[in-house]
Structures are given as structure tokens and as C-alpha cells.
């Protein structure tokens, strides 16, 4: 049986492709910002939070470039309907985490195009909120643990229920005279 | 703070050129905006963001912002307390930005442009590092020449606006009751006051002397200061060295890994405590705000070929080059390592602020400093490179030859009653012509020496 070690042009191209693919996989594994999925370890999630906090701090300090463009959004209670309206919320934020020193709560963001299973109870609120912004209905959340007389010290926008954190909201002061 | 305002303009328009619109805003509006920006810090979420809240309050006290902000105002406000009128809600392109900076709108504060979150100023290190380039003294001479004679030629209208705002905001007594009013009969010289803050916070002097024209009575900034952070530089350099070890070995999958996250966290906590000792009760918060504001104005001026830079024929490709060109016009030279200092100022400020609020207090969070998957690790590489290049301290070098193994944590017992520090050893003269920040007197081994 005849054997040969000569490489055909096809072999060379194949080897080149394999090398290129291996390089690409290595690059992908080591490139910054790889933590974007939902199945990281606890330590990875911790590091992601620290990194986000650092980039958010830089954004607030007026820095530009290198990830210092963390999206910020506004948030305020509509106490009558016990919902928090989220102004300027980036489209990729699907969950909101509310925190203060005593408790925290993660809630799915409701949008106009969501399934309106509980829509009736929000009809009036939608109308109010829409009018207050001069059109365009903003996303909202319906907290269960927090009430309008709670101070909310931190409002974070998450891509998935467990992270990563991708946007930053303001402190929300308690609504005065909320009964 | 002017970098923040410039970023708001850029974000609103999507045009980097909109940053320069800051220089076209009337100084009375800018001055009032600073008070509003100070007040806006109260709406920043607890720090560190997204992590368990640190026990260290921002700026050393939860009450300092409220203690010094404007009084509560009725709506509409009385004439004495008119808002800055800088309103960016309807700014969406360069044309609308140009209109917005030349008008006054009865809206209060920068909050509307930031989704209700306030803005935060840079750490005092930003002012120290930038002033180490000699930038303020060069601009002081440029402004002086422009207002006393014709040696620098004729200016266009935008440069005239810059000149007026610069002189009125930074080279005269500040407006009455302004948050930036850190000059008085009791501390009359701004340049001495800034050196005082640097000395207290970092135990370091600027590398250049007070120019003879303004020199008064020796090193006034070191008198009656009480405690100072003499040990800052040693701890800071050690932190950089340990983080570099971590970065070098981050991808090790086999063999020894000398990275010690616990030691990095320990150093981080030591620096945090050092800063917060100087900030007790909100000390230095107002001064930091005022000094960072001054430096950010000149930094912004040099970031691009702004009208004043072009009018003075100093247009170039980097802030350091522009500063050198401006210096040439008035017969002055910036620090030799200005380029590195410009590149270092913002990252170092961010990192120190993060350390100060306890972002890296344990080994788990400190690991973010050398985890290659983060923006933070990229930033650390930049800081280490720039610091090493600017100061000449070999952060990355390892000892060569036969070395007796030593523990990674230096064994250094405190020396009781050494009494070192500025009072007992001759302080480095401010006039030394070093190109890098001057450290506290050698031999100082502990935090908190009498100065």
C-alpha cells in the first residue's frame, strides 16, 4: 500500500483553517467582556458586579470610552397604582433589582407589547404615564415587597433574572403622605 | 465637573464637538451649575454600585453634601437663587446644543439630563496628577499675558468667551456663597490651598515650585495640618505591584501562582482607611470638588484643538503636546512626563475612588482587579504602565540573580517614637525640578505624621 506525506493544496488549506479556527476560539475565550451569559460561577458573577460598579462609577464621574458608558435611566413611583415607571430604560433590560439596606426584590420589566394578562388593572396608569411623557408609554414594574413609602436606595437594570447588571437607575425617595 | 458637563453635551448630541460648547456658557451660569452639581450627588445610589453597601460613606460623611448645598427653594425660586439655566433636555444635535449654551431656562440642576442620577467629581488625585504637569501655572501665565498686553496676539470670539470665563471662575475671588469659594482672607492663595490638600491626602508635593511671581512665605501648605497620609505612596506602589503579579499570572492553568488576593484586599483596605481618615466628617470634600473643577476646565481645554488652543497656535495631537506648545508661547516648560500624567489622571482617580468606597475590600472582589475579562483589568494595566513611566518606579520588575525568598507581605515593625515626618526631617523643597510627583520625606513609615 502506498503511503505519502506530501501535502496537497487542500490539506494545506485545511490545516490553515484549523489553525485559524483554534486561534479564533482562543481569542473568544480570552476576550474582555466574555461574561455575558447566565451560567457563570458565583465568583464570576461577583467580579461582573464589581466591574459593572466600577464602570458605573466612571460614567458618573464623566469618563468616556472603555466601557464608561453605562446606561442610566429614570424611575419614579405612580403610587396610585403601586407601579414604578422606568424612563429611558434600555431595551435590553428585562429585569429590575430594587434594593435598600433591609430588603431586595427582582422584578420582570413590563412593556406595552407584553402579554396583557393583568392589563386591565394598569389601563388608567398607562394612560396617566403616557400623558405625562407626552406620548410613548414607558416600561414599568409592579413591586410586591416594596411599597411607595419605602426608600429605595438602588435600582439596577439586569439582562436576565440573575444578571448581568447592565443599567443604573436613581435612588427613589419615599412618596410623602402615602397611606 | 466640567468633564461631566462636556459628556452630557456629547451624549445628548452624539457629537464629540459638542464638548467644546462648555466654554461658550456664561460664567454666571457655570458658577451656579457647580452648586447644583454638588447638590446632585445626594441622588447617587449607594456605592459601590451593585454590591453590598460599604460602611464607608461617600466623601467621608453622609451629611456633608446636605450641609453645604443651597437652601431649599420655593417654586419659582427667588431672584437671588436663580438656577443655572443650563438645560439639555431638548438638545439632540450640535445646532440645538449651540442654542442651549447661550440661553437661560428656569430649570434646576443637571438631573434632568442624567435620568435623575447626580454626577460625581473626580478624586483629588486627578487634580494632583494633572497639576503635576505644570498646567495651571502655564495657563495662569497665558491668561495674564492675554489680559495685560498684546504679546499673544488677537483672539476670536469663542476664545474671548473662554478667556473671560477662565479669569472670572478661577483667577479671582469666587462669587459670594459659592460651593467653589475655597479662597478667603484666611487662605488667600488658591495654589497654596491646593498644595495643602495634596499634602494632607497623599503626603506628596507638586514637583514644581510656586512661581517666583506668586511665591509668598515658604511652604505654607505644610503648617498646622495635623495628620497627613505619609504612607500613601508606599502602599499605592505595593498595590500596583501585587495587581501586576495577578495580571501576569491570571491565565496560569498550571504551576505556581504568586497572586495573593487577600494581600491585595489588605492593601486596598489600608488605602481606604487612610483616605477616610482624612475625610472624617466630610473634611476636604468641598476642597476636592473645587480643585477638581479647576483642573477639569483646563483638561477639557487641552483635550481637543479648542478655539483658544488654535488661536494661540498650539494645535496638536495630544493634551501634553498642546500644553507644551502653550508653554512655549509664554516661555515655560511642562513636566517632562506630562503625556503619562495626562493619561494617568482619570484612571487613577477612578481607581482610588473605588478603593475609597470599599469596592475591593475582600479577596473575592479584589480579584476583579486582575481578572482579564473585565474593563477594570484593562484599566489596571493602563495605570501600572503610566505610573511606572511617569514616576520611574519599576512596578513590573522582579529581582534578578539569586534572591532570598521573602514573604509577599513586607515584614516591617513599626518604630515607636520615631517622630519622623515633615516636622522632624527637612521637608523636600518645593522648588525641586523633578519631573514627577514628589513624595513625602523618606523614612516616613506610618500613616498620620504631624506636618
Number of helices in the DSSP assignment of chain A: 3
| Rg result of chain A | 24 Å
User: How many individual β-strands of chain B?
Assistant: 2
| Beta-strand residue percentage of chain A | 15-25%
Sheet/helix structural class of chain B: mainly alpha
Secondary-structure class of chain A: alpha+beta
Q: How much is the average pLDDT of chain B? A: 80
Oligomer: heterodimer
Distance between the termini of chain A: 92 Å
Portion of residues within helices of chain A: 25-40%
Can you walk through the features of this model?
The complex is a heterodimer of chains A (179) and B (451). Chain A has 179 residues and is α+β, with helices and mostly antiparallel strands. Helices cover 28% and strands 17% of the residues of chain A. Chain A is built from 3 helices and 7 strands, in the order H-H-E-E-E-E-H-E-E-E. Chain A has helices spanning 9-30, 42-60, 123-132, and strands spanning 74-78, 83-87, 95-99, 104-108, 140-141, 154-158, 165-168. Chain A is elongated and about 80 Å long. Chain A starts with 8 loop residues before the first helix and ends in an 11-residue tail after the last strand. Chain B is mainly alpha-helical. Helices cover 44% and strands 1% of the residues of chain B. Chain B contains 16 helices and 2 strands. Chain B has helices spanning 2-13, 27-40, 64-68, 94-100, 124-131, 135-148, 157-170, 190-202, 232-248, 261-278, 285-303, 307-311, 319-329, 338-356, 363-366, 375-391; strands spanning 227-228, 449-450. Chain B has a two-stranded antiparallel ribbon with strand order 1-2. In chain B, helix 5 (124-131) packs across helix 11, helix 5 runs antiparallel to helix 14 (338-356) and helix 9 runs antiparallel to helix 10. The longest helix of chain B is centred in the middle third of the chain and has 19 residues, at 285-303. Chain B is globular, with a radius of gyration of 23 Å. Residues 110-114, 413-435 and 440-451 of chain B have low confidence and may be disordered. At the A-B interface, helix 2, strand 1 and strand 6 of A face helix 1, helix 14 and helix 16 of B.
